[in-house]
Amino acid sequence: MADAPRYKRILLKLSGEALMGPERFGIHPPTLHSIGAQIKEVVALGIETALVIGGGNIFRGLAASANGMDRASADYMGMLATVMNSLALQDALEAQGVLTRVQSAVKMEELCEPYIRRRAVRHLEKGRVVIFAAGTGNPYFTTDTAAALRAMEIHADVLMKATKVDGVYDKDPIGHPDAKLFRRLTYMDVLSQRLAVMDSTAISLCRDNRLPIVVFNLHKPGNIRNVVMGEEIGTTVEEAA
Length: 241
Prior knowledge:
It is built from 8 helices and 11 strands. By secondary structure, the chain is an alpha/beta fold. The chain has a single domain, classed as Acetylglutamate kinase-like (Carbamate kinase), CATH 3.40.1160. The strands form 2 sheets. The protein has a 9-stranded mixed β-sheet with strand order 4-3-5-2-1-6-10-11-9, sandwiched between helices. The longest helix is centred in the middle third of the chain and has 25 residues, at 71-95. The radius of gyration is 17 Å and the shape is globular. The two termini are 21 Å apart.
């Protein structure tokens, strides 16, 4: 592991389910506090940190549309769920002394700032954590795609995808003990093998802009810091050398 951080500016993608902890839905306060503590540890290193959070712990638009709800309406409801999660994480971070701003792609100015790219970058330069809420503001796009888009807009050095397993496998490791962990993949590997990293739109966006993706286990304490410091954990997705 290097003595100096590998990355200066990161975008961390969290699933909504990451906030559930042992619960079946909603937000688990001790888990929220633990995630906040990991982020605080990274901010203390001087890393400019932005986040995108999903909303699956509260509402899943894709599942609702599969059950007959209009897809656009379902996706807008999912965006609202991401705002709730973003406000919860903001509260957890500020309770630990980390200055945080939430910027929403859907305007709700009584709750958070509207998304303005230059303002977001300025917050990062001042050492504030920026949480991007409401996805891209458009239906039919996932929060994975929103994470890739925002990472590009703020010129992040890496997109860090936090999961509940150690990286990307050839099959689901939870149901298959013989699943193989990949340490390095190319974008085309992910697309051609249909590996469950992020949706194809997000992967293609990262490929076109040569943004590396690191997929790692959020639930191992210190892993966010370990990735930032250059420790070889999880799976790295990037262009072939």
